[in-house]
Amino acid sequence: MRILFITATRLGDAVISTGLLEHLRHTCPEARFTIACGPVAAGLFQRMPGLERVIVMTKRRYDLHWFDLWRHCVLTRWDLVIDLRGSATSLFLWTRRRRIMRGGRRPGSRLAHVAQLFSLSPSPMPTVWTSPDDTARARATLGTLPLIALGPTANWSGKVWPADRFVALWNALSKTRPDIRLAVFYGPGQTEKHMAAPLLAIPGAIDAGGRFTLAETAAMLELCSLFVGNDSGLMHLAAAAGTPTLGLFGPSKASEYAPGGRRAEWIAAPGPEGEAPIAGLKTETVIEHARIMLPGAATETRQ
Questions:
Q1: Contact by Cβ (8 Å): 94, 79
Q2: Where in the chain are the domains?
Q3: Could you tell me which CDD domains the record lists for this protein (predicted)?
């Protein structure tokens, strides 16, 4: 059985789609999967069992990247084509069955939208796939446990909680749990590293960003006791890894993009959803929620 799975360009959306993929992998154990996605998300699927190949869709003018995808896939007789991008390309491929998620903004969570393609309820939770080598590198990079992971970056400035507040959060949590260490996560590129710089300057902080594969990053997140970060692909990856995750929301909509995971929660700045500046999210509020979620700190007295 051969399945073509067309998923997102952005990392967060791609992570959200992994729950459906894992569901299909278990219900169709003989299937071979071809994943089509953007370059940022491609590494997410490299360790997936049953993977045949990943087709990286690099955006081109006049939407020619969709023609490229068609050329890669048109000679294959598919058993199932799943198109989470709602493209016309999937209509011009030979397949026994197809499921297309229509475009346009709809109320409700993206996780539920994906699950509705197969009438799944509850929605299957996102997952990560890692290897023993990824775990070994994660342990070598992070060293001694326990660890708190902080993710101070995002793909646009409106979603970025001020860095000095992340520093204040770390100072408070390190007093609650003096045995815990800090790992700072961020994406590739100098812009992301610049956003993370105030936390990287904290004595003893572990640089867990920029240079790792997504599988290695997921393996590092699996080792952390808590992740607190902005609404971002890393937030979704942490939740999918099963790490207790606290997502911070401002002008992005938590009703649509709340982290999906067994131990994932979120808090938002006060004000109308989709409009509230993230700077309105108070440090004390985040500290209180993080303390409750931090293993071994739930009964600690507030400082």
A1: no
A2: 2-116, 132-293
A3: GT9_LPS_heptosyltransferase (cd03789)
The reply to whether domains 2-116 and 132-293 share a CATH topology is yes
What's the CATH number for 2-116?
3.40.50.2000
| pLDDT digit string, tens, across residues 55-76 | 999 999 989 999 999 999 999 9
DSSP string, 41-79: GGGGGTT-TTEEEEEE----GGGHHHHHHHHHHTTS-EE
- Output the average pLDDT for the chain: 94
Ramachandran angles phi, psi of 145, nearest 5°: -95, 165
Joined together, the tokens standing for residue 266 give 């979120």
149 with 114: CB under 8 angstroms? no
Angle at 111 between CA 12 and CA 286, to 5 degrees: 65
Residue whose tokens read 């011009």 = 92
DSSP SS3 for 247: strand
Q: What is the pTM of this model?
A: 0.94
What is the pLDDT, as a whole number, of residue 274?
A: 84
The string of DSSP letters for 93-128 reads S-EEEEEE---S--SS-HHHHHHHTTT-SSPPPP--
Is the pLDDT higher at 205 or at 155?
Answer: 205
Nearest 5°: the CA angle 269, 291, 160 is 35
Tokens linked to 212: 């790792």
Neighbour-count burial of 79, counting CB atoms closer than 10 A to its CB (0-12 exposed, 13-18 middle, 19+ buried): middle
Fold of 132-293: Rossmann fold (3.40.50)
